[in-house]
Amino acid sequence: MKKLTTSVLILVLSSSLAVANAQEVKNDTVKAQEIEGVVVTALGIKREKKSLGYASQEIKASALSDGTTNTGNIAAQLSGKVAGLNVTTNNNFGGSSNLLIRGVKALGGGNPLIVIDGSPVNNGNTQANSIDYGNALSDINQEDIESINVLKGAAASALYGDRGLNGVIVITTKNGKGKDDGSLGVTFSSAIQVGFIDKSTFPEYQTKYGAGYAQSFGSKAADGLNYANFGADASWGPKFDPNLMVYQWDSFNPLSPNYQKARPWTAAKNGPITFFNNPATYINSVTLEKGQKGKNITFTYENMMSDGLMPNSHLNKNNFSLKVNYDLTPKLHSTFYSSMTLQDTKGRSITGYSNNIATGFRQWWQTNVDVADLQSMYLANINVANSSNNYGNVTWSRKSATNGAPAYWNNPYFQAYQNYSSDKRYRNFTYGQVTYDLLDNISVTGKVSYDRTSLTAETRLAVGSLPQAFGQSNNVIGSGYGRRDIIQAETNYDLMVNYKFNITDNINISGVLGGNIRRNYNSSIYASTEGGLVVPGIYALSNSKKAPLASDELESTEQTNSMYATASFDFYKKFYLDATWRTAESSTLKAGNNIYNYPSITGALIMSEILDTKEWMNFWKLRANYAEVGGSATPYQLFNNYRSAGILSGTGIYNSILTRPFEDLRPQRSKEFEIGTEAHFLRDRITLDVAYYKTKTIDQIIPLAVSAGTGFTAKVINAGRIDNTGVEVQLGLVPIKTKDFTWNIDANWSKNQNKVIELNPGITNYLLNSFQGGVSLNARVGEAWGTLVGADYTYLNGEKVIDPKTGKYLQNPNQVIGNTTPDWIGGIRNSFSYKGFSLSFLIDMRKGGDIFSTDMYYGLSSGLYKETAEGDYRDKPIVLSGVLPDGTPNNIQLSPADNNGAMGYKTQPSREFVYDGSYIKLREASIGYMLPKSLLEGTKIYDAKISIVGRNLWIIHKNLPYADPEAMVGGGINSYGWSIGSMPTTRDLGINVTFKF
Fold it and tell me: Among candidates 674, 703, 705, 670, which has minimal Cα distance to 690?
């Protein structure tokens, strides 16, 4: 991959530089003050970008959405567009997208703060009961977005203090503009999108052998014909032979056309890939806007209806938003913005190992089972469901010829249509602000913002299902119902004084003095039935066979009070010096530890003004900064707290405290130094931005594992240090620019080196996550965050050692087998415009970042994949490659009966299934046409555009077999290094039309 990527970059950049020189046009003039423009920074403060002493990158709305299908989550549409921003998007229906700026700084990971028009909003992801409910950024109405500015480092985010640790993403919403004549403007957009499975992200099955763990049938019917190996959810069984008649799973259901019939022993015509749908999405939006100086209004409504890959999966989302800017007097200005999201989702896919349909397809399956037959059996039996047919759950994974109860897996259609989850989410974000121009150079702004999300999620386990752990007690039962209600709310009160003074004619100072009060409220309640459902099909807590346990309830309220100040000095438009200070008081830390300060200082030197380089380099800036940010504690970590476990004989019972609190917790802190430069050549035909940074994060707040002999399993402490060092590069090229034709290239590349410097005295490893297959994700001293630990081969002089007793590999447990941190990430977008036509495509790249595939770990051992049936592998003895403990070559033969143990987890250690997570993707592509004005004459339409867009069209390169390297389990910590039961990736195509009236 390295050679391929390097060649592509060299070809694109060298040719672009050559053409740019040849295409220099004399009339390409750019005024100095327009070189970089104005951007929105922390607290919604607008600044000239050239004055900033830190790295930030702005993405306009058109670059976010015009070139791709609408994912429903704006986070996903940032992939490959920002240097230093690593976006991980999974394939869960309505699932999370993880954002990471400049590497992992906290031991527990962390996402950047999201800010809309200066007000923070919640972007937490919710994952419960192995279901990914997505992250809250998906609630933002994409039609409202004017631009996104990514504040990468500590200096850029220092004004957010204890929330600026992981960077900030600033979203600016649109203001109403209307028509040139001041009348009401109407914009209508409509899009249809369809997905097609990328077959490189789904297993290729072998078609030579069927159900079983050995090449023999287990039992025979009375007529002497064989029964299939029903209880085996693997495909190491007998070789297919169309002349061999076998009683299979559907031979025992009276509604089956094969009832009491034996069928030819052949591979299925319709494999598991036919289970999935082609997901379709329909998006319609209308925007009304009207504006003039001093007052404007915009209202937007958007509806998204989407069907997922899984049968019985559907999402319906409605977004409403209103923004009003109004000057009450010439000196009193007001802004009001409110957005409301109503989302109803059904059929989210289960993630992880158990009960995940995709896990069954990837790891435990019989290649003789036809998915179309499973669908027919479900449809035929569900309307006459009773105990004799497992209430419609007629499955291939029956226990035996005489017992049709599921052995390991439900019928996938029964699972999708009966055991589905559903959830409803309501989100409201509202703010109001007024600004009074006290003097010509002083203004006062008051602002209140409110962000509230409520989620009601329901899970179902239908009567007739495979018994599984379920509900509050986590007992294994065959039916049940659970309900979870979550409320998250944040209120911010801000008062700011903006000032600007001219010290001399060429020196001025400007800044902000202000204060903030933030209140956060969180509430969650989970309750479930116990012992199963009394009446099948009625999903209510009152339909419980046993008395439900006490609900699991959590409620917290926290408050942070802050004051801040900024001072920006402008010296002759050539040197800029900025300083900020924020002090905060947190309610989650005890007095004495709960007040902390976050400073920053930045400088920017405009070298092009000092050296007068405008003839060949029209802009050149050097910048440097130092800043500190941090993070406070979450609630209830200072003192013991208890959870109710119910009532016994009238007396309340409470759960044991397993985590020991720490009264003297301190806030965690991150210190960062950054230097960088920006340069514009040939009148902006070439632009370059380079940044180097070094970050040290200390006093992590973590629950550290301790011996259970202490009475606890963990204790909360301040400990640990993580360092990050990195380089970011942005390059913009305009190789060709004429009156009618323009070619733009935007490239970004970043490399972050992460290292865990220390944890706690005597502690060298901190467990982050545990994976099915005996692998764990860790932070280990001396290594990059995200170390994968598991079993490796035993080596002798570099050769794998064979156990002479078994002829299989000797394994060495608890070894470092990989690391999830990528070496570098990057993206290149090419955009072309010719008169009314436009074309663009984005190549998104990641180098490195290891992934453990539990699918391959189990799937090879179950005989599913094509590798397990190549040639005569299953029919002849084999000798594993390696040496015996004395160093001689291995000569121990495994008999054909043992071949099923020669691949996968039975023989090979987990190290064998760690893959390089590199990829190169054609992430986005679009072709658009703006209809000429002459065609619109005589109509009320003054603008019309039609576009064909695509997303994830081609995985040009990857190393992870049968899966997408991005498709991890969920958001947050679950987005690192674990491929298991992921849904296949789709190539998405869409048609967008936009009319302006």
Answer: 674
The Cα–Cα gap between 619 and 843 comes to 28
Dig out the tokens for 652 from the structure.
């309340």
Contact 253, 386 (CB under 8 A): no
Question: In the chain, where are the structural domains located?
Answer: 5-24+44-196+279-350+420-853+918-996, 203-278+351-419
Residue that the structure tokens 């007000």 belong to = 119
Q: Give the pTM.
A: 0.92
Tokens 């090979």 sit on residue: 908
Sign of the torsion formed by the C-alpha atoms of 40, 41, 42 and 46: negative
Q: What does the CA dihedral 13, 15, 18, 23 come to, rounded to 10 degrees?
A: -100
CA 694, 700, 703, 709 torsion-angle sign: positive
Helix, strand or coil, per DSSP, at residue 869: helix
SS3 for 823-867 is EEEEEEEEEEEECCEEEEEEEEEEEECEEEEHHHHHHCCCCCEHH
Q: Which pLDDT score, from 0 to 100, does residue 17 have?
A: 38
Counting every residue written for the chain, the total comes to 997
Tokens of 171: 């979203």
pLDDT of residue 703: 87
Q: Are 884 and 809 in contact (CB under 8 A)?
A: no
Strand partners, 775: 771
Dist CA 236 CA 739 (whole Å): 66
900: left (phi over 0), alpha (psi -120 to 50) or beta: alpha
DSSP-derived secondary structure letter, 225 = P
- Which amino acid is present at 268? A
Q: In Å, what is the CA distance from 65 to each residue of 58, 77, 499, 840, 842? A: 14, 7, 36, 12, 12
Which tokens is 642 given?
């208890």
The pLDDT of residue 25 is 36
| Distance separating alpha carbons of residues 554 and 794, to the nearest angstrom | 47
Q: What is the pLDDT of residue 13?
A: 38
Query: In whole angstroms, what is the distance from residue 235 CA to residue 257 CA?
Result: 24
- Phi/psi of residue 32, nearest 5 degrees: -55, -45
What residues have CB less than 8 Å from 386, skipping those under 6 apart? none
In this structure, whether the domain defined by 5-24+44-196+279-350+420-853+918-996 belongs to CATH 2.60.40.1190 is answered with no
- Cα–Cα distance measured from residue 579 to residue 44, given in angstroms and rounded to the nearest whole number: 17
Low-confidence ranges of the chain (pLDDT < 50): 1-34
Q: Give the containing element (helix H, strand E) for 379.
A: helix 371-382
DSSP 8-state assignment for residue 178:
-
In the three-class reduction of DSSP (H, G, I as helix; E, B as strand; rest coil), residue 882 is classed as coil
DSSP state of 144: G
pLDDT of 607-645, one tens digit each? Answer: 998 998 878 899 999 999 999 998 888 888 888 877 777
pLDDT at 33: 43
